Amino acid sequence: MSISMQDVEHVAKLARLDLTEEEKQTFTGQLNAILKYAEQLNSIDTDGVEPTSHVVPMSNVMREDEVRPSLPLDKVFLNAPDEEEGQFKVPAILE
């Protein structure tokens, strides 16, 4: 598989990028070099290798949920630009 100049132009158009001819040639060469390097993976013997999603064991690193008291409202509203009736007051965004 290889990337053509037309492929680079198509992706640039989708991304709304205005590339020069020199940039198109550069990106075409770079993308083809990446694909050529990735094709080396096809030559690796993977028979007998069990599929895995991670190469190292993963465990849940999240802490357990605990009920804790929240901050008092007077401290919470110290950082608020404006407050009204115990709620943050923000500018209206609807007309």
From TrEMBL:
Signal peptide: none annotated. Coiled coil: none annotated. This is Aspartyl/glutamyl-tRNA(Asn/Gln) amidotransferase subunit C. Allows the formation of correctly charged Asn-tRNA(Asn) or Gln-tRNA(Gln) through the transamidation of misacylated Asp-tRNA(Asn) or Glu-tRNA(Gln) in organisms which lack either or both of asparaginyl-tRNA or glutaminyl-tRNA synthetases. The reaction takes place in the presence of glutamine and ATP through an activated phospho-Asp-tRNA(Asn) or phospho-Glu-tRNA(Gln). Belongs to the GatC family. Gene3D superfamilies: Glu-tRNAGln amidotransferase C subunit, N-terminal domain. The keyword Protein biosynthesis applies. It comes from the Bacteria. It is an enzyme of class 6 (ligase). The keyword Protein biosynthesis applies. Heterotrimer of A, B and C subunits. The gene is gatC. Pfam families: GatC. It catalyses: L-glutamyl-tRNA(Gln) + L-glutamine + ATP + H2O = L-glutaminyl-tRNA(Gln) + L-glutamate + ADP + phosphate + H(+); L-aspartyl-tRNA(Asn) + L-glutamine + ATP + H2O = L-asparaginyl-tRNA(Asn) + L-glutamate + ADP + phosphate + 2 H(+). Its EC number is 6.3.5.-. Keywords: ATP-binding, Ligase, Nucleotide-binding, Protein biosynthesis.
